[in-house]
Amino acid sequence: MLAVQQLEAGYGESVILRDVSLQVRPGQIVCLLGRNGVGKTTLMKGVMGLLKARKGAVSYNGADLTKTAPGGRAKSGIGYVPQGREIFPQLTVFENVLLGLEAAKVKTRTIPDEALEKFPVIREMYGRRGGDLSGGQQQQLAFARALASKPELLLLDEPCEGIQPSIVDDIRDVIRSIKADGKTAILLVEQSLEFVKSVGDYFYILEKGSIAWEGGLESLSDDVIRKYLTV
């Protein structure tokens, strides 16, 4: 499904990612771990096309997307919930979700039920402005907006950052339900080790902009955690 091959990317003169390769297979939840500042968000932006690849390649379902703009990547079936949510504060909740339809493969103005059934509270808040919502509600809105296009691959960058535990539990349940449906793969960046271990199938650890370790849950030992993740 998704294949990142020897990707190099950065900002200005700074190179953040070096020779990064990873894969996400259909229906799989792949978790990207690492200490702060190692390049996790940079990699997500590189996959989404928000940062141009200096070297390497990004392919999706066999198609080379390395030079494809973010809009084209979204329309190919990739949804994105960025760190910080990036909802539109002056638009209503309904209008924010509608924007997610811009990436749908089939043009429609009808929000699919599956985008809302995961977070029923979104429909109840349709008339409120996005900027008036709590952080947790904005995260649910960003999630629903991404699901509106029925993506086959969902990029989640720190979905639990700065939100209350009850909504963290809701997001965990949503990720598990997506996994159970088997229709959408997920590439997840998250700091909470407990959270990713409860949902993930395969794990990559970034260190200094490169993949330092990869493996399944059974291989994510205390020694690996101490070496690459403990602050």
The tally of beta strands, per DSSP, is 10
Per CATH, the superfamily of the domain at 81-150 and 168-182 is P-loop containing nucleotide triphosphate hydrolases
Over the alpha carbons, how many angstroms does the gyration radius reach? Answer: 17 Å
CATH hierarchy: architecture of the domain at 81-150 and 168-182: 3-Layer(aba) Sandwich
The SSE string, one letter per element, is: EEEHEEHEHHHHEHEHEEH
Tell me the helix content. Answer: 25-40%
Which overall shape is indicated by the principal axes computed on the Cα atoms?
Answer: globular
**With helices defined by DSSP (H or I, 4 residues minimum), what is the helix count?**
9
Query: How is the main sheet built?
Result: 6 strands, mixed
What's the CATH C level of the domain at 81-150 and 168-182?
A: Alpha Beta
| Mean of all residue-level pLDDT scores | 92
Named CATH topology of the domain at 81-150 and 168-182: Rossmann fold
Question: Can you characterise this structure?
Answer:
The chain is α/β, with parallel strands linked by helices and 231 residues long. Among the domains are: 1-22 and 30-78, P-loop containing nucleotide triphosphate hydrolases (Rossmann fold, 3-Layer(aba) Sandwich), CATH 3.40.50.300; 81-150 and 168-182, 3-Layer(aba) Sandwich (Rossmann fold), CATH 3.40.50.300. It has nine helices and ten strands. The chain has helices at 40-48, 70-75, 93-99, 113-117, 121-124, 135-147, 165-181, 193-199, 222-228; strands spanning 2-11, 14-24, 29-33, 55-60, 63-64, 78-81, 153-157, 185-189, 202-207, 210-216. The strands form two sheets. The protein has a six-stranded mixed sheet, sandwiched between helices. Strands 2-1-4-5 form a four-stranded antiparallel sheet, covered by helices on one side. Helix 3 (93-99) packs parallel to helix 6 (135-147). The longest helix has 17 residues, at 165-181. It is globular, with a radius of gyration of 17 Å. The mean pLDDT is 92. Belongs to the ABC transporter superfamily. This is ABC transporter ATP-binding protein. One of its GO terms (molecular function) is branched-chain amino acid transmembrane transporter activity. It comes from Paenibacillus abyssi. Residues 2-231 form the ABC transporter domain.
